[in-house]
Design goal:
The protein is α+β, with helices and mostly antiparallel strands and 185 residues long. It has helices at 13-22, 43-62, 90-93, 116-129, and strands spanning 28-32, 35-39, 65-68, 72-74, 79-81, 85-89, 106-110, 134-139, 144-152, 155-164, 168-171, 177-180. Strand 8 and strand 9 form a beta hairpin. The chain starts with 12 loop residues before the first helix and ends in a 5-residue tail after the last strand.
């Protein structure tokens, strides 16, 4: 009698999935609630991220940090995110691997028509659950900006906004700078 091998035995599915997405050539991908999604932002999306990035980069340098769109791992879940902008301490950025949301100072997501609810609901909940201190949602569809802070297991307990595009928004400590959203219109 021939037995059929059990290929699933002893394999950590979360680890295997996250390993696989890190080795896909040519595309940047995320895993959102177990679904692999290509990250392919449009030019208008990239322009919105650039407006924010340019306004924070001097302060980011002063804080000894780096801003970019590196990988964030959410261990114990089937999630692997590539935020539009993440601010992390420079010493952590040198490690080369994925970081955890609680190692960030700020995460910025810019909505697109294809993923607005993911950024508004799923990522907001997960970033809070994994301790990201500040989550800035640039909602292109709603033409507004909202900052979420004070993370907990049930979500962020504080929301500042929505602030309409065309106004200046104050980013709190450790940044303590104004973000002019006129360029997002």
């Amino acid at each position: 009698m021939t037995s059929t091998p059990d290929y699933g035995q002893g394999i950590d599915a979360e680890r295997a999935l996250k390993f696989a997405v890190q080795h896909i050539r040519g595309d940047r991908v995320e895993i959102i609630e177990g679904i692999i999604e290509a990250v392919s932002p449009t030019w208008v999306h990239e322009r919105a991220a650039k407006v924010v990035r340019r306004q924070i980069e001097d302060r980011v340098d002063e804080l000894g940090c780096v801003e970019g769109s590196g990988n964030l791992d959410l261990p114990g879940s089937s999630n692997w995110y590539v935020p539009d902008i993440t601010v992390v301490p420079e010493d952590l950025a040198r490690g080369g691997g994925a970081l955890l949301p609680d190692q960030t100072l700020l995460i910025v997501e810019v909505t697109s028509e294809s993923n607005a609810d993911t950024d508004r609901i799923v990522k907001r909940r997960r970033y809070a659950e994994y301790g990201a201190p500040l989550y800035l949602l640039v909602d292109r569809m709603e033409k507004s900006l909202t900052l979420f802070s004070e993370p907990g297991q049930l979500g962020y307990t504080r929301a500042d906004g929505p602030h309409p595009f065309g106004t200046t928004f104050h980013l709190p400590t450790p940044f303590s700078i104004g973000i002019n959203t006129t360029g997002l219109l």
